[in-house]
Design a protein that fits this description.
Chain lengths: ~140, ~325
């Protein structure tokens, strides 16, 4: 049983595990194991060297994950309906007094809303700011 | 050799752990809170993330999806002093992972408690009937109170829904009775309505038939009277015509007689002729009216006069 064969088997097992679990770093180990197998083919007896080379390769690859991850980050993810509220149109269901909270309905959800001016019931408003549970609105005007 | 193997094992172990802690894949709609040496550093967004294992630590992950929490049945007293068991469900969502981590120790527990308390407060302002049907009202009322409380927790309670309201048994029985009575009342009212309609319709029919009959009678009578009138008129006309004709004929006869030169002597003669005609009758006795004799006498006198008149001429 040659050392490089063992390394290759390890690489294969790691690759399969990676495909099954999707942790991403096992992929780097498996590539590191392949590199270690190459080293083992050249120097069959230097086990420590093989291990260290494999580990270093894995580490370098891991460091290079960052630019890769940026590229992935650009891909479109799932957009939560609740996140993008700013600029949306809502209808006032409870009148808003300045300094007090009223209620605005935006697409089926009710939100506590505040405003710098009085908003009567059934007025259309635009969301201009959002904190975690409250929003700030202004009158909806068409010339925006 | 064993030393070499131990070294190899240690190196491999350390590297494996290091790399495993460096690369973090966060699934969509989850977010991790990273602390660098105990201080909040950043959020781990979905996708591939790189951490520095020694100084960075993931404190905890938050699920950003809307979550549901069942609130165990609560006994709540309504405005009209009825104890009801309310079973509600809360839908909430983590919107600020930092606040949900550092603002409150256990936001799920907090959300449950605040919802229950607010619910109790709101139900306490409503009458029993309103609570049974006022979903919209409850959700509106609860909104501001909850948002005020959960603002600092980074959690937004989307909605609180009442799944079930169980009034006490005796109240439920009363409600059933009320319902039955309502239905009964409706049935009785409907029956009465039907009877009323029936009577009205019958009366209407009666009235109509009577009116029609009277109309027919009147029409017939008018027609009859008209016929009678016309007939009489025609008869009278006929009679008038007949009388006229008779008169005409009479006049013609007189005219003719006059034309024929009718005078006293002819008349006298004619009367005698008539007398003889009478005498020829089957009766034995003939009564000659005295005035006839007189007439005869006068006729004679007239004849004399005439004769005298002629001789004078």
């Amino acid at each position: 049983m040659h050392a490089w064969v063992i390394w290759l088997i390890a690489a294969g097992i790691l690759l399969v595990l990676e495909m099954m679990t999707l942790t991403f770093y096992l992929l780097w180990f498996s590539i590191g194991a392949v590199v270690a197998a190459l080293v083992a083919a050249i120097a069959p007896d230097a086990y420590l060297l093989q291990v260290i080379v494999g580990c270093v390769v894995s580490l370098i690859l891991t460091v290079f994950t960052k630019p890769l991850s940026r590229r992935f980050r650009a891909a479109r993810g799932f957009e939560d309906a609740g996140i993008e509220l700013i600029g949306r149109k809502g209808i006032v269901t409870e009148p808003i007094e300045p300094g007090q909270y009223g209620i605005v309905k935006i697409g089926g959800d009710t939100w506590s809303a505040t405003s710098s001016e009085y908003q009567a019931k059934d007025e259309w408003v635009r969301v201009i700011k959002r904190s975690s549970t409250r929003i700030e609105v202004e009158k909806w005007e068409e010339f925006y | 050799m064993p030393v070499q193997w131990i070294v190899i094992a240690v190196v491999v172990f350390v590297v494996v752990v290091f790399i495993a802690l460096t690369v973090k894949i966060v699934p969509q709609q989850r977010v991790g809170v990273v602390e660098r040496l105990g201080k909040f550093h950043r959020l781990l967004n979905p996708g591939l993330n790189i951490l520095i294992p020694v100084i960075d630590q993931v404190r905890l992950y938050h699920d950003l999806r809307i979550q549901q929490a069942n609130v165990p049945p609560q006994t709540v007293i309504t405005k009209d002093n009825v104890q009801v068991q309310i079973d509600s469900i809360i839908f909430y969502q983590v919107v600020g992972p930092e606040q949900a981590t550092y603002g409150i120790s256990d936001y799920v527990y907090g959300v449950r408690n605040i919802s229950t308390a607010t619910m109790r407060q709101i139900i306490g302002k409503l009458e029993l009937d309103e609570t049974l049907s006022g979903r919209e009202k409850i959700s509106t009322e609860i909104r501001i109170a909850l948002d005020e409380a959960t603002e600092k927790w980074g959690v937004r309670i989307e909605r609180v829904e009442v799944i079930d309201i169980k009034p006490p048994l005796d109240i439920q029985e009363a409600m059933d009775k009320q319902m039955k009575a309502e239905r009964n009342k409706r049935a009785i009212v409907l029956e009465a309505e039907a009877a009323k309609q029936d009577m009205i319709l019958r009366a209407e029919g009666d009235k109509q038939s009577k009116i029609l009959k009277a109309e027919g009678d009147k029409e017939a009578r008018i027609r009859e009277a008209e016929g009678l009138g016309q007939a009489q008129e025609l008869e009278a006309l006929g009679q008038a015509k007949a009388i006229q004709a008779i008169a005409e004929a009479e006049r013609a006869r007189i005219e003719n007689l006059r034309a024929a030169g009718l005078d006293e002597s002819v008349l006298a003669y004619r009367s005698f002729e008539a007398l003889t005609e009478i005498a020829k009758g089957p009766a034995n006795k003939v009564f000659i009216p005295s005035n006839a004799v007189e007439t005869l006498g006068s006729l004679g006198a007239i004849g004399e006069v005439f004769k005298a008149g002629k001789s004078e001429k």
